[in-house]
From TrEMBL:
Protein family: Belongs to the class I-like SAM-binding methyltransferase superfamily. Cx-SAM synthase family.
Domain Methyltransferase: 64-160
Gene: cmoA
Pfam families: Methyltransf_25 (PF13649)
Protein name: Carboxy-S-adenosyl-L-methionine synthase
Listed NCBIfam families: carboxy-S-adenosyl-L-methionine synthase CmoA, PRK15451.1
Keyword check for Ligase: no
Superkingdom of source: Bacteria
Function: Catalyzes the conversion of S-adenosyl-L-methionine (SAM) to carboxy-S-adenosyl-L-methionine (Cx-SAM).
GO biological process terms on file: tRNA wobble uridine modification
Length: 244
């Protein structure tokens, strides 16, 4: 994903702001957008590779739910050492999947990757040893999140792994505002203007509803995971490991 295009989607004043959407414009600049917006993104991907080496089981499926341009799928394929595995990458944006296919075709690997254009609510999870939800669940309506986690837990083999990365909110209102401010400072450091930060925040308001870490653990326990823990957090972004 070298020579990436610069994200300038919100750099000019937008009179009528529409909800954020993973359309062609976002797909074109997504690598730049996520690198400049999500602290620790490369650390999460690197660690997914280490987890794949530990938790992938032979003759199973590895799922990348909300795969965007396929970074997590490619990381799992690079680090999978088990035989007869298949990676199933799912996204509901045709624009993202079109570019995802190009990225996948650019790298060789022994583990096949299948792309499915659908909502993750409609994805069957079967014979899975690893499932990745990398900043995906936050875009699903809150009332549908438990059912998705239930389905993932049911479809994972014993000892299977879920990697759940999310933007979160703190239980304390004042701490939550501090984390938001620090994240905005992170974006300023990466070249985003006040206008860009403000307009993107407005665009995300209706489509991204964040949960507390406590609620994530509660849902995972209810879904049937034996244990879950935060292995990484930077500002209001965290990544959780849950084991079947």
């Amino acid at each position: 994903m070298t020579n990436r295009l610069t994200d300038t989607i919100y750099s000019s004043p937008i009179e009528q702001m529409s909800d954020f959407n993973f359309d062609q414009r976002v797909a074109e600049v997504f690598p730049d957008m996520i690198q400049r917006s999500v602290p620790g993104y490369q650390t999460i991907l690197h660690t997914l590779g280490l987890l794949t080496e530990r938790y992938a089981q032979a003759e199973t499926n590895l799922y990348d739910l909300g795969c965007s341009l396929g970074a997590a799928s490619l990381m799992m394929r690079r680090h999978n050492t088990q035989s007869h595995c298949k990676i199933i990458a799912v996204d509901n944006s045709e624009a993202m999947l079109e570019r995802c296919q190009h990225h996948i075709d650019s790298y060789r690997g022994d583990t096949p990757i299948e792309l499915h254009c659908q909502n993750i609510q409609d994805t069957e999870i079967t014979n899975a040893s690893i499932v990745v939800l990398n900043f995906t669940l936050q875009f699903v309506p809150p009332e549908q999140r438990q059912a998705i986690l239930n389905k993932i837990a049911a479809g994972l083999k014993p000892g299977g792994l879920l990697l759940l990365s999310e933007k979160v909110r703190d239980n304390s209102a004042s701490m939550n505002e501090l984390l938001i401010d620090l994240h905005h400072e992170f974006k300023r450091t990466n070249g985003y203007s006040e206008l860009e930060i403000s307009q993107k925040r407005t665009a995300l308001e209706n489509v991204m509803k964040t949960d507390t870490i406590d609620l994530h653990h509660q849902r995972l326990s209810e879904a049937g995971f034996s244990e879950s823990g935060v292995w990484y957090q930077s500002y209001n972004f965290c990544s959780i490991i849950a084991i079947k």
